[in-house]
C-alpha cells in the first residue's frame, strides 16, 4: 500500500516471568529487532507494497521470540499492543487489500502466492487456512467475495487461522 505507515508498541506481562516491553517509534534499516520481508521498506515508518505494482506483499515482524503463554502451566499470558498506521487512498484509486497484525511462530516466511487479499499469510493451495498456528487482526480495505461476508466491505476483523473473520466491524 502506497504511503502506508505503521508504528507499534507491545507490552507483554508474563506471570512468574520477566515482563517484556518494547516501543518502536522509528523504523530504520539494519535494526536487529525487526525482520523485514518482501516489500516492507523502513524509512522512519514502514512502507508496504508499492501500489505501482500488483501482486506484491511485505512484512515487518518483531525478530525475537515472544512468549505468549506460561511454559509451565500452558496458560496464555496477557499482552497489550498499540500501533498507529495510515492508509492514504485520497490521491489514488489503486491501493492494496489491507494489512494484518498477526501472532505466529517465530521465523515464519511469507507464503508463496499470498499477495492481495491473502495478506501475505494465506494462499489458495492451503484452503484459505494457515499452515501454522495464526491469529491476526485484519485491516481489510478491499471486498473479496470468496471469503468476506456480503454485508461488509472495508472492515477490521479478528481472524483465527482463516481468512474469514470470526468477528468484525465496518
UniProtKB/TrEMBL annotation:
The keyword Thylakoid does not apply. The keyword Transmembrane helix does not apply. Gene3D superfamilies: 2.60.120.200. This is Legume lectin domain-containing protein. Coiled coil: none annotated. InterPro entries: ConA-like_dom_sf, Legume_lectin_dom, Leguminous_Lectin. PANTHER family: CONCANAVALIN A-LIKE LECTIN FAMILY PROTEIN, LEGUME LECTIN DOMAIN-CONTAINING PROTEIN. Pfam families: Lectin_legB. Residues 19-168 form the Legume lectin domain. Belongs to the leguminous lectin family. Residues 1-19 form the signal peptide. One of its GO terms (molecular function) is carbohydrate binding. It comes from Brassica carinata. Keywords: Lectin, Signal.
Amino acid at each position: 500500500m502506497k504511503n502506508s505507515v505503521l508504528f507499534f508498541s507491545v507490552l507483554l506481562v508474563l506471570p512468574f516471568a520477566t515482563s517484556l516491553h518494547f516501543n518502536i517509534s522509528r523504523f530504520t534499516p539494519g535494526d536487529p529487532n525487526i525482520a523485514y520481508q518482501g516489500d516492507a521498506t523502513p524509512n522512519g515508518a514502514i512502507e508496504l507494497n508499492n501500489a505501482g505494482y500488483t501482486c506484491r506483499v511485505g512484512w515487518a515482524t518483531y525478530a525475537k521470540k515472544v512468549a505468549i503463554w506460561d511454559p509451565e502451566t500452558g496458560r496464555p499470558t496477557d499482552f497489550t499492543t498499540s500501533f498507529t498506521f495510515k492508509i492514504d487512498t485520497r490521491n489514488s484509486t489503486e491501493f492494496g487489500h489491507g494489512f494484518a497484525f498477526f501472532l505466529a511462530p517465530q521465523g515464519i516466511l511469507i507464503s508463496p502466492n499470498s499477495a492481495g487479499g491473502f495478506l501475505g499469510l494465506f494462499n489458495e493451495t492451503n484452503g484459505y487456512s494457515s499452515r501454522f498456528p495464526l491469529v491476526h487482526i485484519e485491516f481489510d480495505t478491499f471486498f473479496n467475495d470468496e471469503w468476506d461476508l456480503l454485508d461488509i466491505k472495508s472492515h477490521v476483523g479478528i481472524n483465527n487461522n482463516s481468512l474469514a473473520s470470526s468477528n468484525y466491524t465496518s
